[in-house]
Write the structure tokens for this entry.
Amino acid sequence: MKYNLNSRNTLLYLIVFVLFVACKQDNTSVSNNGEPLYLDASAKIEDRVNDLMDRMTLEDKVAQMTQYVGLEHMRKAMKNLKADELDKNDAQGFYPGYSIQDIADMAAEGKIGSFLHVVTVEEANELQKLAQKSRLRIPLLIGIDAIHGNGLYNGATIYPSPISQAATWDDALLKEASKQTALEMRATGSHWAFTPNIDVLRDPRWGRTGETFGEDPYLVGKMGLATIQGLQSDNFESGEYLPNHVIACAKHLIGGGESLNGLNASPLDVSKRTLFEIFLPPYKEAVKGGNLFSIMLSHNEVNGVPAHMDKYLMTDVMRDRWGFNGFYVSDWNDVSRIAKWHYIAKDYKEASLLSVSAGLDMNMHGPNFSDYVIQLVKEGKLPQERVDEACSKILEAKFRLGLFENPFIEFGNENEVVFNKTHQETALKQARKAITLLKNNGILPLKGNNKSILVTGPNANNETIMGDWVYEQPAENTTTIYEGLKALGEEKGIKVDYFNSGERSRKMKDNDIDQAATLAKQYDMTVLVLGENSFRYDWPNKTTGENIDRATLKLSGKQMDLANKILAHGKPIIVVYVSGSPIAEPELENQANAVIYAYEPGSFGGQAVAETIFGELNPGGKLPVTIPRSVGQLQMVYNHKPTMYIHKYNTEKKVPLHPFGFGLSYTTFKISEPRLSRESFSKINDTIEVSVDVTNTGNMAGDEVIQMYIRDNISSFTRPVKELKGYKRVHLEPGETKTVSLPITADRLAFYDAEYNFVVEPGEFTVMTGNSSDDKDLKEVTFEATELINLKE
């Protein structure tokens, strides 16, 4: 049969047929107003994601998996670094062979899904304008290291650092601070906070100690959960739009807090049991309890496998076992380092294959990754489904955050949100609650007989109080230790002066130290403000923080020279430690009249310390870490195994300088024996309430932290001598008694059996309650678990 293609009817038939086939193949939809469904805010997020995915090419999808540093960040880095310095620099970045205009053009073409380190409203808006020029108008996801406040933004509220926040033992307060951080981030153009750091700290030589919540998996898990819920909201998975919240990013999976030598990025080599009992519980809490939507991988290798290609942890455990439903992002340049550092892959392309196949969803940061992923899919080496999975999760985040409706920030509105009065009050409250009194021979709170005070030391009058991940902030937003003491001292008629004995510990000069010591003779007492610094904006002089690890726990530089020369006068000395990393100076503490650990207390740290010294504030913070007597005692943690201290050192005691959970007060407390609501545990839904009465037996109102520890007395695998499983901070007036109840549920008794089932074994358990992990501060009671209980995960 011969067809006449010039026939009008035949041509019409062919057109209809082609359109029919096209419609059958195109799953895209339009809304009632004619816009694509994915731009319809009234549609379900799942439907919007699916509609947009159907409109995207492979290249579009892979672009969503890429992240670049901001253009202004690039501009500064190009001035500060040479190309051959980039690989070992985790703070600054640019892209050799690519101009700033090249990256801007890529954003306008829809070839970039995310930026990081964009620190002005102007740049955030400009980048989003570029993205709106692309075919699909997909907004950018802008991430930033807002670790304790949006500290890379000039003028932000700087809350105490995470180690300081952990010292408050106050989850609700941390959740509130995190909500406020989210508001400040959104007001300044960011949507994704690279926090919380839920690494469990097992080696305080690690410079990132101040970025953690300490050494205990339970405390880290609860503090991490509070941070996530504050940033993301309690109902991130509800399908609601969250324009006032941001995505949280738990990091770093996994084990940076116990590297082989205390150095950042060094290997982790521990048993599977240690992974599941110590390092993974905070991630399990974050995923199951907080609906965590992103996880950052760690620089290191874990038992021989680079973390960025660890399918077992990323996919088998986190996704398949515990239900992680968000997306993974690499740490800085770490996909390429599978080849460059770990020598597992022959090149960046193979490294990309290994990483994305294992579960990675977004690369931080830069070019080439996207080209390699596209090539790998087209070559049949990487399934298209893996790209679709990664892209869909990133798009889901953008929809949930409301970015498709409004990716822009109205300039000027940030002034109403950033560093507002409410946020300042929360930061001050956290600083007050964190202050931990380590020693007091009766000198504190100061009485009226001290009429003159000299304040000196490298951390006395600068922004060391801010901690890491903070750029230099406006002076008017900061109260240094000296400024706090000066202001409150003057109100009380006390002369408070400052002498600059050197603000960088490793650059202190003998002449300045001698002058400080001579001057100290003229004062009734000295407040000596010592510690370490994590100045991000003065990297060469950092003594702790990211990539600045320590081979000692002693004070850096000539700080002890200063202390010893002032101590030689025999006049009273109060030592204030300002440091994210713990300090082990037993002789100094033995000679000092009082020792205060202020950690890194944030914008109003000086006010909180001054209030403590002058008695306006009764300190109630508790240590979230064990402080060893020396580096030679490491590893030293409270939740050790029973045989840890069968023998002793011949040159050192085997007890810490200060135990986990310890902290003194200006008042005294009496804590009763623990009482149980029942004496046996038999079913998965059982709960035992542990109750104690706590009485303020002193003359000053104060806070006490009731801590509950549990020991499995006989078990099929060795268990720690005690594990924290509950805590509550309470405020009591003089003479007041309160009853504190803490629940014991099956998950607080369970551990992993030989097949790594999470089980409660029958047998006796000991419950210990008190105000520190030290045996002398605890009282005990026992109960029985009568049945084997399997908590199926």
Q: What stands out?
A: The first strand starts at residue 66 and ends at 69. The first helix runs from residue 8 to 25.
